[in-house]
Amino acid sequence: QAECEGSSQNSGATAAAADGKIRTKPLIPEMCFTATGCSTDLNLSTPYLEEDGTSVLITCKNCHVCVHASCYGVSPDKATEDWMCSRCTENALEEDCCLCSLRGGALQRANDDKWVHVMCAVAVLEAKFVNIAERSPVDVGKIPLQRFRLKCIFCKKRRKRIAGCCVQCSHGRCPTSFHVSCAQAAGVMMQPDDWPFVVFITCFRHKTPSQAERAKAALQDLSPGQIVISKHKNGRFYQCEVVSLAKETFYEVNFDDGSFSDNLYPEDIVSRDCLQLGPPAEGEVVQVRWTDGQVYGAKFVASHAIQMYQVRS
């Protein structure tokens, strides 16, 4: 089955008049392939992109995997009808991805004589492309062992042992983990993020509601004395009465380890007296005391005023 890696679903294919090849804009920014995110790396990593940001779509004549030439690191002179992917070229048809344990797809050789999906290498923060332009080999030696001990929420029940390497939801310190390929197949939202985190992952629990859902939820304002249905922290729903309403200020930050939180109290930031001075400037480096009592480095994103309700059953 043909698989199209890294192409944008809404970019729109355009046929080139001269050679008849289909070109679209890759969904994954070039910055996601670099080792440092600096401009010199970006210049070195873009030789196979057209001036308009598009890239040729090529298909392996053996396994029929479809990739952008830029995403897979194929130079224009090799992007022909006889092109074969690295796995087929080396007749490594029985090899699977060392990060997700699945075969097929756009595989490139890793530096330990194993194979890895380009998509998995991009999403796993510690995996690095040694030759950025050619997207190969992939250095997986710096991936911490803790990642390989995480259990994928999608396939853990079908496997007797832990296999592959998992990524986690980017919201707060959400522990939800999954293989990149399992997440893609299940429809987990994975979006390009600001360097150095590369990919922002949203599990189903933190999936942002659609505009229609938000509008439905905001059909009416609540007032004291109104009877509502509330969800308790035990997960059950109870009929309650609204006692009072208050606006609460929450801060949003991006932690240095790639995690994210949008429900911090101003006093959680210990490097600044926010109650007296107000919120930090956007992008300002701050120190945050987390619920475990430890202090973590982060960058301030925004301040949000949220309507809070006190209820009683």
From TrEMBL:
Record's catalysed reaction(s): N(6),N(6),N(6)-trimethyl-L-lysyl(9)-[histone H3] + 2 2-oxoglutarate + 2 O2 = N(6)-methyl-L-lysyl(9)-[histone H3] + 2 formaldehyde + 2 succinate + 2 CO2
Listed cofactors: Fe(2+)
Pfam families cross-referenced by the UniProt entry: PHD_2, Tudor_2, zf-HC5HC2H_2
GO CC term, one of those recorded: nucleus
InterPro entries per record: EPHD, Histone_Mod_Regulator, KDM4-like_Tudor, Tudor, Tudor_KDM4A_rpt1, Znf_FYVE_PHD, Znf_PHD, Znf_PHD-finger
Location relative to the cell: Nucleus
Domain PHD-type: 94-207
Keyword Disulfide bond attached: no
Any single biological process term in GO: regulation of transcription by RNA polymerase II
Family recorded in the similarity comment: Belongs to the JHDM3 histone demethylase family.
Name under which the protein is recorded: [histone H3]-trimethyl-L-lysine(9) demethylase
